[in-house]
Amino acid sequence: MQLKALCVSLVAAGAVASLHLNVRTITQIQNDLTVIANKTQQISSTSIFAKANPTTYVFSLAVVNAINATDIAAKTATTDTANTAAFTDAQCTQLLNATEALVPGTLQFALPNLVGAHNALVMSGYWIKAWQTLGLVKTDLHKFIGNLGVKCPTAAGKARATSIQTTTDNMIQNALNTM
Q1: In 3D, which of 84, 78, 83 has the Cα closest to residue 138?
Q2: Distance CA 105, CA 102 (A)
Q3: Burial annotation 46-67 (CB, 10 A radius, 16+ → b, else e)
Q4: How far apart, in whole angstroms, are the C-alpha atoms of residue 43 and residue 22?
Q5: What is the SS3 string spanning 106-132?
Q6: How far is CA 161 from CA 5, 35, 59, 148, in A?
Q7: Confidence class of residue 105 from pLDDT cuts 50, 70 and 90?
Q8: Cα–Cα distance measured from residue 166 to residue 168, given in angstroms and rounded to the nearest whole number
Q9: pLDDT tens-place string over residues 12-33
């Protein structure tokens, strides 16, 4: 209410009032994608260490932390995309190309390593936390990619986002089933 009163008084006084809403840019979403990919790579590397050192519980904890960091990055990307204006067709194509390369692209390496760390995660007591958090990653990546599709102006862009969503969902679900 106070912000509205301030804006009204600025306009009434002849001042040019400009409100900067929390609108994200395409660059910020591309940065979000890079963060998701980096965090997914951390799942891969920490899983390799956990598998090689199953009695060193700190590596299993690092796996869970990496999965959680990936989920946080996906949530951030979901929010940023929701706060972005609709994309042009070229922007949609650019973001979907990056999404396809970075999300399923990094998951295809990280998830087998994560599944390989199963015994270490069980021994350390972190398996259930890893499994639950990976389920959250699946949900949040699904939302993020869905938001990208909503912002695309063409049916082809929306269909491609759905295809990437399905691929990502299936990859993660396969890992969950195997873990």
Answers
A1: 78
A2: 5
A3: bbbbbbeebeebebbbbbbbbb
A4: 31
A5: HHHHHHHHHHHCHHHHHHHCCHHHHHH
A6: 42, 19, 34, 7
A7: confident
A8: 5
A9: 444 333 333 345 788 999 999 9
Question: What digits encode the pLDDT tens for the residues 139-162?
Answer: 999 999 999 999 999 999 999 999
Distance, CA of 56 to CA of 110 (rounded, Å): 20
Q: Considering the entire predicted model, what is its pTM?
A: 0.84
Q: Is 68 helix (H, G, I), strand (E, B) or coil?
A: helix
Q: How many CA atoms lie within 13 A of 106 on its CB side?
A: 20
Residue with tokens 């050192």: 53
The predicted pLDDT at position 23 comes to 59
Cα separation of 170 and 62, whole Å?
24
Would you say residue 57 has pLDDT above 50? Answer: yes
Mean pLDDT of the chain: 88
